[in-house]
């Protein structure tokens, strides 16, 4: 039987590790909460698996655990921040708060952040604002990293450039978290380390030939991830990647043109108050009807019903909050090593 862990105990352990590694307590609390939320929702390559890389980045100075946000420009519904490589979960949560405040006043708000550190799973930020009646969009890119080839290309140029939307309904929100690539660097690394191949030809070798071998992106010369749509429709993923680059690095005025060499992110957060467009119930009626049509539509496989984005993740989160969190087998060995180094008590197991 796999071991389950108490949710708050995991958060407390992650926070303690961050604080003892030199991170301000309030920033550490944000990091711990967001990483644990990733695991609760099933995004286990972008949950507590990231804690060690984050602490390594903190140690070598690529991530900052103390400091202030610099506002570069602003208007009533927009702000452009320099995050000074503060922890990405902290910056993203503050951006959502600020954009929400703007939305309450003028209907919508957008905050763009240059020089954030990595922001973890985008899905981890969606539930709270969406349940409060706000339509939230988050996109990010990392100008220091290349991994995804442009459509028709054979060399890595983009990051996966994830994008996410939280959409209110009368019940659970719709939570969309996708990327402009066929898979992620995190999943590629997990398969590579396990010596496993992918289910499909999601990668290109260094000659631009499709393959199912994730290890090609770690070779020299490196291969790449294919854009979403692969060989047949990769122009769509390529277009989405360009959209994300424009919305992040373009609006931030900082990105690939600056030869960035620090692991991090440029981020764009937009929050819209659905009541600014009319009665809240009118929006919810439309979205509730659409969700009902989707989940009740005839499935191609009778044993696999249609579900909307976020449905599985929120159901998994509910189960794990009640029964305990099941972590991927690679997470606890790394976490236990960190806890032992810092003499912090291990998270509480649930039988």
Walk me through what this model shows.
- It contains ten helices and 13 strands.
- The strands form three sheets. It has a seven-stranded mixed sheet. Strands 12-1-13 form a three-stranded antiparallel sheet.
- It has two domains: 4-182 and 226-287 and 309-350, Malate/L-lactate/L-sulpholactate dehydrogenase, NADPH binding domain (Ribosomal Protein S8, Chain: A, domain 1, 2-Layer Sandwich); 183-225, Hypothetical oxidoreductase yiak, domain 3 (Wheat Germ Agglutinin (Isolectin 2), domain 1, 2-Layer Sandwich), CATH 3.30.60.
- The mean pLDDT is 96.
- It is 39% helix and 17% strand.
- The radius of gyration is 20 Å and the shape is globular.
- It has 351 residues and is α+β, with helices and mostly antiparallel strands.
